[in-house]
Design goal:
By secondary structure, this protein is α+β, with helices and mostly antiparallel strands. The strands form 3 sheets. The chain has a 5-stranded antiparallel beta sheet with strand order 9-6-5-10-11. A 4-stranded antiparallel beta sheet has the order 1-4-2-3, with helices on one face. A hairpin with an 8-residue loop joins strand 5 and strand 6.
Length: 366
């Protein structure tokens, strides 16, 4: 049995709430590979210590390769049923090239109206996520994918607020806990009746410094003057690398919220470590754990995304990433002692090749 105290994620100090938050952290938009160089070194050291480099791929037996790579969103959501099914936004699988009329009939039966979300069944960091508002747009989006590509079609939540909830339940323990909670804010600009969308973005303290994240997906509106009070969402997908803003909410973790996560996930055999993307109505509802809508469940590749809060230092972020992979190795080692076998390297290579090959076909994210 793993000692819970050994895996405690420390809450790093991010400064008093009255202090003005910086617009960016120094490392926020560094290349991903650069942030993970220390993790690779740690992985090699832990592999030598545990005499197995594949332990992280064992941490979630309910998911193929623990959800580390090449993971089907549909398979993970199915594994979370039936305990979490009532909270998961309705979804179905569709293969590109299949009948659009048939898909519409299935959507009607599954209570998935327009607007709906279409995204690749295998993918990460918001890649290929499309907001589809009508039948014409649906046909256009589906035609952009290679024939036979598995796609997830999901109801679009009417709740505007979203959090990433990082959940940890150790082997041999019936109860889990939330170790990270992060607000995922999609930036919005408000028109003044005088300036174009591009000018409004350029004038924003944060968005103006990363205009390249917003210009392409808003090209049709970039030169348009927004009416006084008109709100325009710059992105739909709440992914940091697409331009969403992440804010550390660990101080908002409550016993009621943890109890609700326990109800949803505590009985999911073989799920020990991962992050849920969850929609909620307001801070009071989140604190009570009420009215939560699960979009996705991510496995071993999940990040405790509070590290992308602009107040986080690079040292704090790297410490958290290293904590995550030490935790994965410890969970994998505990399960190995119980008799679980590590996956073959060939299976890992195949999943990695598939994920990279599929990603080349993803359309621009909304």
């Amino acid at each position: 049995m793993v000692d819970p105290a050994a895996l405690q994620l420390e809450k790093t100090s991010l400064g008093a709430a009255t202090c003005a938050a910086p617009t960016f952290s120094r490392f926020e938009f560094w290349p991903t590979w650069l942030m993970y160089v220390p993790v690779v070194g740690l992985w090699l050291c832990l592999a030598l210590r545990h005499r197995c480099a594949r332990l992280p791929f064992m941490a979630n037996p309910a998911f193929p390769l623990s959800g580390m790579m090449g993971a089907s969103k549909a398979r993970i959501l199915r594994a979370a049923a039936p305990s979490a099914e009532a909270a998961i936004l309705p979804w179905l699988l569709h293969r590109s090239g299949d009948s659009v009329a048939g898909l519409l009939q299935r959507c009607a039966a599954a209570d998935i109206p327009f607007p709906m979300v279409v995204k690749p069944d295998v993918g990460c960091r918001g890649s290929g996520v499309k907001l589809v508002r009508d039948e014409t747009a649906l046909a256009a989006v589906l035609s952009a994918w290679p024939l036979g590509m598995p796609l997830m079609v999901q109801r679009c939540s009417q709740l505007r607020r979203e959090v990433g909830v990082f959940w940890l339940r150790l082997p041999g323990h019936s109860r889990g806990r939330i170790v990270s909670l992060t607000e995922k804010e999609t930036p919005t600009v408000v028109g003044d009746g005088q300036r174009t969308l591009g000018q409004l973005v350029a004038a924003d303290a944060r968005a103006g410094q990363v205009q390249h994240l917003y210009r392409e997906r808003n090209a049709a509106h970039w030169q348009r003057v927004l009416a006084l009070g008109e709100r325009h969402d710059l992105v739909f997908s709440a992914s940091h690398c697409r331009g969403a803003v992440f804010r550390d909410l660990r101080q908002a973790i409550t016993p009621a919220l943890e109890a609700r996560m326990q109800e949803l996930l505590g009985s999911v055999a073989g799920f020990h470590y991962g992050r849920l993307d969850v929609k909620y109505a307001d801070t009071d509802a989140l604190a009570r754990g009420e009215g939560l809508e699960i979009i996705e469940i991510n496995g071993a590749s999940s990040e405790a995304i509070h590290i992308w809060d602009a107040r986080t230092t690079v040292g704090q972020a790297l410490a958290t990433l290293c904590w995550q992979y030490r935790t994965l190795f410890r969970i994998g080692a505990a399960l190995q002692r119980q008799g679980q076998q590590a996956p073959a390297w060939s299976a890992i290579r195949q999943a990695l090749r598939r994920e990279f090959a599929d990603r080349r076909h993803h359309p621009a994210t909304d």
